[in-house]
UniProtKB/TrEMBL annotation:
It is a multi-pass membrane protein. Belongs to the TonB-dependent receptor family. Its main location: membrane. It is found in: Cell outer membrane. The keyword Ribosomal protein does not apply. Residues 1-19 form the signal peptide. Keywords: Cell outer membrane, Membrane, Receptor, Signal, TonB box, Transmembrane, Transmembrane beta strand, Transport. Residues 295-319 are annotated as: Disordered. Residues 55-160 form the TonB-dependent receptor plug domain. The lineage of its organism: Bacteria, Pseudomonadati, Pseudomonadota, Gammaproteobacteria, Pseudomonadales. Residues 365-808 form the TonB-dependent receptor-like beta-barrel domain. This is TonB-dependent receptor. Pfam families: Plug, TonB_dep_Rec_b-barrel. The keyword Transport applies.
Amino acid sequence: MYKRSSTAGVVGFTLTALAMAIASERLSAAETVANTEHVEVVGQAASIDQALKEQRSSDSIKSVVHADGVAQLPDENVAEAVQRLPGVSVERDQGEGRFVSVRGLGPDLNSVTINGTLVPSPESERRAVALDVLPSELVQSLSVIKTLTPDMDANSLGGTVDVKSLSAFDHKGLFYTGSSEASYDKNTHQTSPKFSGAISDRFSLGDGIDNFGVAAALSWQKRDFGSDNVETGGAWDFEQGAKLQEFEQRDYDISRERSGGGLNFDYKPDDLSSYYLRTLYSRYKDSETRNSTSLEFADPLTAGELGDAEGSRKLKQREETQEIQSYVLGGERMFGLWTLSGQAGYSRSSEDSPGHIANAAFNGTDDFTDSGFYDNDKPRPIIGQSFYNPDNFSLDKVDWEKQKTTDTEKNLRLDLARDYDFSGYASQVKFGGKVSRRNKDNNLDAWVYEDFDDLGFSDEQLNLSRFKKGTVDYRLGQFGPGISGSAIKQLIGGLNQADFYDETESRVNDFKISEDINAGYLMNTIDIDDWRFIAGMRYEGTEFEAKGTGATDGEFQSTETKRRYHHWLPGLHARYQLDKNTQVRAAWTKSVVRPTFGQLAPGFVIDDDEATFGNPDLKPLESSNLDLGIEHYMGHAGTVSAFVFYKDIKNFVYNTDLAGTGAWADFSEAHTFANGDSAKLYGLELAYSQKFDWLPAPWNGLLLGANTTFSRSDAEIEGFDAASGINRKRSIDLPNQSDTVGNLMLGWEDDKLSLRLSANYKSDYLFELASINDKAHDLHVDAQTFVDFSARYSLTKNLQVSFEAQNLTDEPYFVYTGNRSYNGQYEEYGPTYKLGLTFTHF
């Protein structure tokens, strides 16, 4: 059997370390037991309370997650911690939270900042930043800012995720912590290690006392896991009565290694000034082996119906490394009534995929007769044993690729504020500017090895039996032999690589895109009795340039697009204090988001009457936003709030086919991107949190948290219907927008024990649009509910053991075509269990 490797020794190491640490701590504790009456631990309630205090005092509408006293976020990675907040959900990859969606708007319409500077995306086509790249140990707090004041970048429609890293001033004096963890993946029966640590301290410089702080954090994790998948990609023929044309089974074997570090400095020479340097480095290495089988029916079939089919077996094997670097230098100085602040930031993200097998395809030497499938939503093959015999497959083609993407952002910001009295009311005027320079480069090289018979290879040399690697362990049914990547590399390694270079694929996917943004703003804050008003205007001017290559029937030409555009973005915020624990908030703001780099890509391919191209002339998305809500705070870790929001979005982007129109009148296909006229998004956000510390023991340790967001969207797209020869319009939901998102958390804690059971729900959403007149082939992601459990127990004041269980219900990922009866993609991950040990001094 082709089994995934196991590192079960990690469990033994963790348990041994646990035993040794307990013994050591007990010896130490025995000497001081007379002076120790109980163990005092900063836990869930304190972390929630600290987050609520920051949320309450903010001038913006935002939600916050804080690390607790041992510098631990409540979840494995940054994305999964943020998803617990109202209005926030995540897109998952292989079961792990990655990209963040805010108030139903897709991840590419939000921004991510680290210590106030923008984080560029390492992926070639996206603006969204995969937050699982950032180890949670490096983070002190996470904020999702949903309404922007004029002194903030206006580049988010849903919200800005602001990541703040550890500072020495987060703790009093010397602080350090270290953790080890072993996680077990039930799907693959593999055990994986994780180690992390952080340290901070303050020092006295000059005449000051504890005025200089240094904080450092390190994290390393290697996780071996996998998933099992079956997908049709929407290949249903609904005109013949919902018949399936083809489907594919996939088995993923994945190893992910995360490592990161941060080194931060803070200097506060006096009460009037402060300076800081924040650095962060994160590395994410993903190694994936994907074996797949596919069946393509000679005639579309219904479930249980039999016919002839072509079969194939494929392999993808690649290694991908993403890196994020962020450096922020800033400070603030008060001069009487004036406050001067500034910041310089540099961030660089990259994704490097060295030469790898993008696809190695072995086709069946003959058709497979009496073949079919059963189960529309999770298709499995009905086929003879010949399909599982490697002797019946022969190597047809090998796609070999390598790719490197870099995205850098440099910025410089300066702000000046002055406090003044206006008719007896405290006021402040603030103005400033920011320049940012962003450059995105993508370089892809591709080779296609095919026609092996003409190259002199015999049928025996190309037979799958020579490339077989055991039998794939596939949870969804029988799979058959795996494919050896090393054997394929050996075969093509003896060929002259230059003879197989795919110039079209390589050149049209290369691009250089730059965005230079110059911004300035003016805003005024005034407190009138129980009111606080903030009014202002922000200006952003953008210079855009895209360079690439197009191919027309094999002939290449350089493309270049330059544009300038300007945005004036007014904003008005109001906050009214009803009583000492209750406040009302309102905001009217404008924001702007540029299309993704994949949508703006300047390359194109025209092949006879078919065309595919990006659209560098796309307009930015503009949104007018209204927010109104009320917050009531109830003692320790307690709040209840309700907010309504409305967004009027212009120029939203969607994929379309321009064939039959304008310059593409004689084309059968012309796939690109276009701006829609307008879309609307509106909704209601409810949140509740409470520590029941007034109840008698043991109920005084109970915590309850719940939030839900109900939203709706309305958008209209337009396209040419070739069948009728006319332009058509149809109404859609915004892609990636879920009508309902919710969280429920039940916790309990005392001085030693902390328990948490949490559930995260996300309703179905539109994933990908089909053609204008083919709503039945739209792809939707089905609703998901993830249930997790965590427990922490303090063995001593400084030593804590933890247990976590993720995805307890083994929730799958299901994409359906048109309606839930027809598969687009189905994938299972299984639950994960973790055992950890943390030592902390604070």
